[in-house]
Amino acid sequence: MDKIVVEGGVPLRGSVDVSGAKNAALPIIAATLLAEGDHAVRNVPDLADVRTLGRLLGHMGCQVERGAIDRRALGIRVPAAVSPEAPYELVKTMRASVVVLGPLVARWGRARVSLPGGCAIGARPIDQHLKGLAALGAELRLEHGYVHASVPRGRLRGAVFTFDGQTVTGTENVMMAAALAEGESVLRNCAREPEVRDLADALQAMGARIEGAGTDEIWVEGVERLRPIEHTVIPDRIEAGTFLVAGALPGGDVTVRGVVAAHQEGLIEKLRAIGATVSETGGGLRVVGDGRPRPVDVRTAPYPGFPTDMQAQMMVLLCLAEGSSKITETVFENRFMHVQELQRLGADIAVDGKVALVKGVPALSGAPVMASDLRASAALVLAGLAAQGTTEVLRVYHLDRGYERIEEKLAPLGARIRRVKA
Ligand code: EPU
């Protein structure tokens, strides 16, 4: 298994480009199932998760090809009939595969999709996806680890549905299904993440009638047929945020090109609070880290709050702060797996339920560490960059699920980082 080796203690300086957003690309690729024909999805990051979803669409009978249009684009040919099934072997490696459920039910009136099961960061049920699809007229049975969906009357019917709690992929699944339902749907308590909005933009380009995506109430007027997608995915706000944190490490000065500043408000506020200077440059954001960060309390929340996907990376900064900070994780119940690894690097952190108390230390010291999930891995790379000596991050496959060649993006900033092939 590959590992990332970092010789830390060198402040990062320079510019880095952001890739397309994984969490927008995934549902948009799933949305191609809503229309027969040749789709073009541009600015798609070349990541393990994207390849997994490509394999899943291939399994159903679609053709997915990178590079035919341009290097950053996926060409997807969706035939008139697909086999509407997502097997456990593929879903277990990526729970986001569940975003095919809404499109399959809407277009073919039936689907067999494996339940994703738990994951390192929490139980992550999909009850809200299922409740929303049931409200649109799908019949859902859970059997042998699979969701079996059918639509007795042939076509879904628009409905008013209120999510019990905000869910990103749940909102996406139900919105995609409603796009082909008969009549009007009103979805309430929706997730407001920019990725939901980007999916809605892609659906609109397909001919869907959707308003309100990006707010907590989405209105959809179903149409009978959609046309193939031609869409460019938004920049990845979490990859960008990870580089912004790298710039805020002591002595850093990093410009992140292509980031959408409006998507970073929750993070920018905290970076300024710790004493970093954040400024907009033409087409990017520049972060200059001062000396040791100031402590600050952080509470994760759905967008536009502080993203749970940035919690681990922010913790690295606070590990080096002059004082104590409190981090409260409200979105997932078990998202402190990185704490034990950061402790191996000399961090002083105590976890009590959903709260982590981080007492800043003057310096971290390199050590071998193990990645447990995607964002935890990114945090360990950042910690390695800040630490004195050598850090080896093992189980890099987690990192490759969501970051495009992170070592190649960080090295030009002065990071002494390399991938060691197994
Ligand atoms: N939840 C339910 N029932 C549901 C759905 C969700 O109780 O039916 C709960 C979850 O257990 C969790 C909370 O609601 O406690 C929020 O989960 P959400 O459904 O919003 O998460 P998701 O859609 O599965 C997406 C991202 C995650 C990101 C979260 C939160 C994608 C593909 N994934 O997951 O990204 O952390 O939203 O913002 O969009 C990552 O990229 O590293 C990642 C984990």
Concise account of the structure shown:
The protein has 422 residues and is an alpha/beta fold. It has helices at 22-31, 48-60, 88-91, 101-108, 127-135, 168-179, 194-205, 237-248, 265-273, 311-319, 338-344, 374-386, 397-400, 406-410, and strands at 3-7, 13-17, 37-42, 63-66, 74-78, 85-86, 110-114, 139-143, 146-150, 160-162, 184-188, 209-211, 217-221, 230-232, 253-257, 277-281, 284-288, 298-299, 324-328, 348-352, 355-359, 368-370, 390-394, 416-420.
Low-confidence stretches: none
Strand arrangement across the biggest beta sheet: 22-23-1-24
| Ligand kinds | uridine-diphosphate-2(N-acetylglucosaminyl) butyric acid
Major sheet, described briefly?
4 strands, mixed
Rg, rounded, reads 21 Å
What's the shape? elongated
Question: What separation lies between the terminal Cα atoms?
Answer: 5 Å
Task: Find the count of extended strands (DSSP E, 2+ residues).
Answer: 24
What structural class results from the helix and strand content?
alpha/beta
Helical fraction:
25-40%
Strand coverage percent? 25-35%
In DSSP terms, counting alpha (H) and pi (I) runs of 4 or more, how many helices?
Answer: 14
User: What is the mean pLDDT?
Assistant: 96
Architecture overview:
The chain has 422 residues and is α/β, with parallel strands linked by helices. The protein contains 14 helices and 24 strands. Strand 8 and strand 9 form a beta hairpin. The longest helix has 13 residues. The protein is elongated and about 65 Å long. The model has no long low-confidence stretch (mean pLDDT 96). It binds uridine-diphosphate-2(N-acetylglucosaminyl) butyric acid (EPU). Uridine-diphosphate-2(N-acetylglucosaminyl) butyric acid (EPU) binds next to helix 1, helix 5, helix 6 and helix 12.
